[in-house]
């Protein structure tokens, strides 16, 4: 005995209720001669318009530029706003009203977040430009491009402070990017995803 509301399919694709009544439902796919049960099985791998796009396993220079600049600005803004919040809470005086404290917190958080966000956004912009330039120049995509872009970004960002500051910032930028590349390789190898 079939459960109420169950259906059986005929060989022509129409369905008939087993509960009774002989109601036949319309099947729009029966004349198409296609396996309509699998029509919505979509591929999970990325699809590319051109074969050259499938060979390159990286973002384009425009996507790279947008990604690093946006991430830098977002992280800098959130971190700067947090730093501004702590500074404003620490600078609060005993006789301040609630309005004055809230105003100080909003002003300090906004100013510090904007300043640090802009700095990290510019660093992301320079890094993305240098890394894309290195990939274009060397015609390979490996860790050397990332480390050289980190060196160049640090040196360019502090170039106005003098050659010694630029050299130190370049070395720090190269070390930070090298550590990030090494951590990414370790994570790819040992962390199951």
TrEMBL record:
The signal peptide annotation in the UniProt record is none
Give a Gene Ontology cellular component term annotated to this protein.
TIM23 mitochondrial import inner membrane translocase complex
Could you tell me which residues belong to the region Disordered?
1-24
Q: Which UniProt keywords apply?
A: Membrane, Transmembrane, Transmembrane helix
Cross-referenced InterPro entries: Tim23-like
- Which spans does this entry mark as compositional bias, Basic and acidic residues? 9-18
Instruction: Please give the superkingdom of this protein's source.
Output: Eukaryota
Coiled-coil ranges (or none): none
**Cross-referenced Pfam families, in alphabetical order?**
Tim17
Mind listing the GO biological process terms from this record? protein import into mitochondrial matrix
**Where does it reside?**
Membrane
The topology of this chain with respect to the membrane is: Multi-pass membrane protein
* Recorded GO MF terms: protein transmembrane transporter activity
The UniProt entry, under PANTHER family, shows: SD19278P, TIM23
- What name does the UniProt record give this protein? Uncharacterized protein
* Taxonomic source organism: Spirodela intermedia
Q: What is the lineage of its organism?
A: Eukaryota, Viridiplantae, Streptophyta, Embryophyta, Tracheophyta
């Amino acid at each position: 005995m079939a459960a109420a509301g169950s259906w059986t399919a005929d060989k022509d694709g129409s369905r008939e209720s087993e509960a009774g009544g002989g109601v036949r439902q319309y099947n729009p796919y029966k004349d198409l001669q296609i396996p309509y049960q699998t029509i919505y099985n979509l591929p999970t791998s990325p699809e590319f318009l051109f074969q050259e796009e499938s060979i390159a396993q990286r973002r384009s220079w425009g996507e790279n530029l947008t990604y690093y600049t946006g991430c830098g600005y977002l992280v800098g803004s959130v971190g700067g706003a947090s730093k501004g919040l702590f500074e404003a809470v620490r600078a609060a005086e005993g006789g301040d009203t609630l309005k004055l404290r809230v105003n100080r917190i909003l002003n300090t958080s906004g100013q510090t977040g904007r300043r640090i966000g802009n700095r990290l956004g510019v660093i992301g912009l320079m890094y993305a430009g240098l890394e894309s330039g290195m990939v274009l120049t060397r015609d390979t995509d490996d860790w050397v491009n990332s480390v050289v872009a980190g060196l160049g970004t640090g040196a360019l960002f502090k170039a106005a402070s003098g050659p010694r500051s630029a050299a130190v910032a370049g070395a720090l930028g190269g070390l930070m990017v090298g550590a990030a590349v090494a951590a990414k390789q370790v994570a790819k190898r040992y962390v199951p995803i």
